[in-house]
Design a protein that fits this description.
Length: about 475
């Protein structure tokens, strides 16, 4: 189209930005295909030796699993679940477990059967879990001996991932693969929003969503092939029950990469794992990028192997919440991510903030992320979060929760003056509270709701 600007992809006629990358080749929509089957097909088409390539490593024990064993155990588990429990296409499985080597095997097995995968945070409370279960109506549960007491009874019971029984399901000599005709538009997974701004929602994603996401990454990989590149090794600090962790696990298998798994996040443990396993990329949340750039601890480890850090992800729709889904997808199929963005003349997209997190100060809108980014440049601030504080005259004013660096005597007045010198008057920080840490979700997102709820009990400095 002549109207599309070749520099940034903007179409002057439709006012739509188009990707400047070549169109991603996808399998026909009417082809029966699961997300796991597609990922495995890409893996098998590569030149990798599946017997000699490590698929997953448990960072806490050093235990590893080759791709050939990963595929064998996935197929064995599929056979076991199909024959013992009669799991079928459209059933939902609820999973309550921290990250382990068993989780990717379980995900790929369930996806291949057309069973909807619904993993939740294992530290969730029983009321939170009850709400999630009421949304997805699972027929079977998977947990560990530590988390099983949080689950109710299911039609097919609960399978313990750390039991000898589950281990035996991974090594059955099955007569053949289970053949299930999975439709690409079938729901593949229901994951849960972090609930940082309200009630937890069930986020629905189809096999086609995951296939397209995987295909896009595969095409980028093919475009960037260079000689003597190191074998890609990823460190998964984000839990696999999170949508981002779920997606990167699928991509790692499709691209034949090695994934180093952490059962729980620990910053020093992450740095040690990068050094030990010569990690080349880390999927991370934005606050973690800030920590890597600011904390002195980073300098004590050899991170020379690390080439890329990345983050991203967006939902398709919400289970049991038609109003939220309608607010997310418009009539033409456009996904409203809720992000405040801008695009430069070269087509680069910049995420500035979340629309729902904007602070409404009088007639102005103040993006918290902009103020957080500014405050993170202060040499005495280790971490920070900015939230709206109710104000009778202005409606809301920006308030900063600040974590001082060790030994710092930084005051609230100094924080406010630091910001005031660099922003427009309406963006000034007008209240400050010093805290020992910023509450965050398992994915590393700031729990703004928790901070807002704590305002009444927190000592403040104010302008």
């Amino acid at each position: 189209m002549k109207e599309i600007n070749p520099s940034n992809g903007f179409c002057s006629k439709t006012k739509i930005y188009h990707s400047l990358r070549p169109q991603v080749i996808l399998p026909p929509t009417n082809q029966p295909l699961s997300a796991s089957e597609y990922a495995i097909s890409l893996l098998r088409s590569s030149s990798l030796s599946l017997e000699n390539t490590i698929a997953f490593i448990d960072s806490s024990t050093g235990t590893s699993l080759s791709y050939s064993d990963f595929i064998k155990q996935t197929e064995s588990l599929s056979f076991s679940l199909h024959n013992r429990f009669g799991l079928k296409r459209g059933d939902t499985a609820f999973i309550l477990s921290s990250t382990s080597l068993q989780i990717p095997i379980l995900y790929f097995s369930l996806l291949s059967l057309g069973v909807i995968v619904s993993p939740a945070n294992p530290i969730s409370t029983i009321p939170e879990i009850s709400r999630q279960i009421s949304l997805v109506k699972p027929v079977i549960g998977f947990s560990t001996s530590v988390t099983s007491n949080k689950l109710p009874s299911f039609h097919h019971g609960t399978v313990l991932l750390d039991s000898l029984d589950f281990k035996s399901m991974l090594t059955i000599q099955q007569p053949g693969r289970v053949n299930v005709q999975v439709v690409q538009t079938d729901t593949a997974a229901i994951l849960y929003s972090s609930g940082t701004t309200g009630l937890v929602k069930g986020v629905e994603l189809t096999h086609r969503n995951f296939i397209a996401f995987t295909a896009g990454h595969n095409q980028v990989r093919l475009e960037m092939v260079e000689e003597n590149q190191p074998h890609p090794i990823g460190l998964f600090t984000i839990p696999l029950f999170h949508v981002f962790g779920f997606c990167v696990a699928l991509i790692a298998v499709a691209l034949g990469e090695t994934a180093v798994l952490m059962d729980r996040f620990d910053f020093e443990g992450m740095l040690k794992a990068v050094e030990t396993y010569k990690v080349t990329y880390v999927p991370v949340s934005p606050p973690l990028v800030v920590a890597m750039a600011k904390l002195d601890l980073v300098d004590k480890f050899d991170l020379s192997s690390l080439l890329v850090v990345a983050c991203g992800g967006a939902p398709l729709g919400y289970v049991g919440d038609d109003e939220a889904t309608v607010a997310t997808l418009d009539s033409e199929g456009w996904l409203k991510t809720g992000d405040l963005c801008n695009v430069d003349n070269d087509g680069f997209l910049y995420i500035v903030d979340r629309l729902k997190e904007l602070i409404k100060y009088k007639a102005y809108q103040v993006p918290p992320a902009e103020l957080e980014h500014l405050l993170q440049t202060h040499l005495e601030i280790a971490d920070v979060a900015v939230v709206p504080y109710p104000d009778e005259e202005a409606g809301q004013i920006p308030m900063a929760f600040v974590v001082r660096k060790p030994g710092s005597n930084l005051t609230g007045i100094q924080v406010m003056e630091f910001v005031a010198k660099q922003v427009a008057p309406y963006k000034k920080i007008r209240r400050v509270a010093f805290v020992s840490s910023i509450p965050k979700s398992a994915a590393g997102k700031i729990s703004r709701k928790e901070l807002i709820d704590s305002i009444q009990t927190t000592p403040l400095s104010k302008l």
